Amino acid sequence: DIYGRSGERKYGCRKRDILNLKIRLTLPKQFSWGDPFNDENFEENVDDQKDCGSCYSISSVYSLERRFEILFWKKYKKKVNMPRLSHQSILSCSPYNQGCDGGYPFLVGKHMYEYGIIPEQYMHYENNDYKNCIMDMGNYNHINKQNRNIKEIYYVSDYNYINGCYECTNEYEMMNEIILNGPIVAAINATSELLNYYNIEDKNVVYDILPKDTHQVCDVPNKGFNGWQQTNHAINIVGWGEQIINKDKMKNDDTNNNNNDNNHKLVKYWIIRNTWGKNWGYKGYLKFQRGINLAGIESQAVYIDPDFSRGYPKNILQSDPLQ
C-alpha cells in the first residue's frame, strides 16, 4: 500500500502477484535505449506539443521510430537512420482519435496498422488539427491523385496493452518489453506539479509526487487486473534504473523499503521522455519513481511493433545490403 496513511491503493483493484519470477531475476538493475542521464553526449530533438493535445501522437510515433531502428539491427543487422515520422498525419488524418483534443496510443497503433504513417517531410507539425490530410484514407477522405504516389509509408505489425489487455500491465512486464523491443508508451495523471520541472540541472532528481485527488475504480471482477486509473497525458519510457537518494529530497518516503537507513533510501525509477520540449526536465527527460504505479504509469502501457513485411521498410530489406 503505497499511500499508507490515506488508505488508498496503488491500483484501483487489489492486484494479485502474477509476475514471472524468472523475468524479475534476469532483468538488469539499469537499462536504457538512450537518454541524457547515462550519456553525457546525448543530444536529441525532443518534440514540444505546445498547446495542442497531441502527446498521444508524439509519444506513439517516437516509439515506432525507435523500434524500427532497434529491430532493423537486431533482426536484420541493418543500421538504418529512421526519418522523423509525421505526428501531424495522426492529428489530421486519424478517424480513431480527436486531433488536438486528445486520443489514445492504442488507437494510434490501430491507425498505423491499418493506414500506415508517412515521413514528416510530407506533413510537418503545425500545432493544430485542421491541416488537410494528404494520406489516402479510403472512404474517410478524398485526396489528389498525386498524393497517392507517396511510397514512403511505414506500418505497424502489432499493437496492444502490455500483458495482453487494458488494466493488465505491470512493472516487470513493461521492463521486459522495453529491453526486448524498444521504448514503450505509457499514460500518467500529469498534474501541475510537473510544470515545475523545466530546466532541471540536477541529473539525480527523481519525480515522486503523488497526485492529489486521483481517481481509481475497481471496475472488473477478474483477479489480477489493475482497475481503472485516471490519466491525462502520454509519455515514453525508454529505460529504468535505481539510485540511493537522501530522504530529505524525497516527497514520497516509503519507509517499508528494506534498503533504507535513517537518512537514505534506495529508489527505483523509470526514464521517461516527455512531449514538452527539450527545456522540460533534463533535456526533455526525467526520472520517474518506479514500482508504485505513480500517477498510473504502470496501469496502461502500450507497445507498438514495426512491420517489415510491407511499405518502405520492405523495400529497404530488399535493397542491396552493401548500399
From TrEMBL:
GO molecular function, one term: aminopeptidase activity
Main localisation: membrane
Tree of life domain: Eukaryota
Any GO BP annotation: proteolysis
A single Gene Ontology CC term: membrane
Keyword Ribosomal protein: no
Family according to the record: Belongs to the peptidase C1 family.
Protein name per its UniProtKB record: Dipeptidyl aminopeptidase 2, putative
Lineage of the organism: Eukaryota, Sar, Alveolata, Apicomplexa, Aconoidasida
